[in-house]
Amino acid sequence: MKMQNTMTLPPRRAHKRKINVATVLSVIVLTVFTVFALIPFLFLLISSFKPGSDIVRYGINLQFDPKALTLKNYVLLWTERNGIYLHWFKNSILITLLQTVISVFLSAMVGYGLAMYQFRGRNLIFIIVLAVLVVPLEILILPLYKLTVSLRIINTYAGVILPFAVPAFAVFFFRQYALGLSKDLLDAGRIDGCSEFGIFFKIMMPLMMPAFGAMVILQAMFSWNNFVWPLIVLRSNENLTIPIGLASLITPYGHNYDMLMSGAVMSVIPILIVFLFNQRAFISGLTIGGIKG
Amino acid sequence: MKEVTISKRKKTFNSQKLAPYLFVLPFIIVFLVFFVYPIFSTIVMSMQEIYGFDDVEFIGFENYKRLNNPHYLGALRTSAAYTFWTILVLIPLPVVLAAVLNSKSTPLKNFFKSALFVPALTSVIVAGIFFRYSFGEQETTLVNSIIGFFGLKPFVWLQKSSTAMFALVILCTWRWLGVNIVYFLSGLQNIPPEIYEAADIDGANALDKFFRITVPSLKPVILYVLIISIHGGLAMFAESYAYWQSQTPGGIGMTIVSYIYQTAFNYFQMGLASAVGLTLLVLILVLNVIFLAIFGAFRKESD
What we know:
By secondary structure, chain A is mainly alpha-helical.
């Protein structure tokens, strides 16, 4: 198989034709997977305009009657059960904002410290960062649950945010980024009489803005969609975030299909808008991990 | 060496010595309180029978002996199968798609790249809502309509373990395909184009180039994706919860973490749940070490 191909070099014309066939083939393959990727959004959107009872009876289905479509679900979404969805929406927004600001800022500090200074224990701390990355948080849900109960932060925003206030992946990301910053700037800042933290805030943070951009977006996406830990910590209905609230609608006791589909669509729209304007930041935040593998 | 230059600047000596520790302090605090302590407490709990908040009895390795039960073994099998299938799909498929997207002649690259990534923006539960009601048992549901088009009878997808696994892997593929494509594309961009040009001159065809240049160059990224897939696969819970919540008839779709959730939060057997969690931790660590050793990552010197 190996030698044969190199020996029988096809004539130039045929070669070119082959490339065109390959191009057509790749477009077909990519189109198939793009349809697979996008069609669920279309179905969710259409289902959100159908009466809720439709979903119970027929599931997500191919029937499409433009005249039967209604905006009713989007009105009910904000009023039903005393506007519970509004609570979820508010909680999701506040937790996303707080968690993103806190965890990005703290992990930038830690990553910067690990990259810029030589100190005893530096390597040990970096190894710990890597080790934490390897341990799935799902293993810790039970002891963490007990701990949040003892600390009296169960069913609060703090309970959702504090245990993951300094995410290892973000520390790793910022460390990698800060390694590329010039250490001469440290000295320059010191000569100008800046304190170490002054150097970080005034000189280094502005230089780290691209890293902040990537991490803010990635962390915000993670917080907005976060499921496992909030499911454990948030115990009362009006304290839930959107994903947990939506999940509570599917339980055998809480069937409420009017809110389900429109609620799901409403939860996707904000993140979709952010993505459309910041695609590069999403990608660069993800790929730093892959580079060092 | 650096120590010397630093200590020269006497004026701010103390602050410079202390500053790095202040910078990393938040991580150390969170690590000790929300990582070391929970791990320690779950180890202790795994050797206890917990009746109430302060009512515990030390029972040694009894909880570990109790793991020899059909629920745990079934959950282990489900998680292992899920990990196996997701790796089988979510490594080769995105590698091929990334190679296609990386080829010069492919049009609309940016559109395809973005479109394929969009599912990653959804929460598990939104994806779960779509797939759960598309895999519904009524003959009108999306999936049953599609198989009906090919003359097949409607199917009860979510109540049989083989088709339930199919539904889980489809959901995972939908959400993660674009992310893995991004990983592999970043790996592909590190391959110098001259190598492909040289291969062209030697008359290599597309398949030769794919298997002899693309795949070997992607080895580190493949290892990375493999490790996060093992990690994510064995610890999978949310996808199963999205389909079946925490209770499933006959343990359909029940994974190791679903079993932890069930024993801890539905049956309040905290000791047993801790033992399950620790076996999962050991399993994941051992597999990581094995794969790193196989791929020879230990030999490479990191900076």
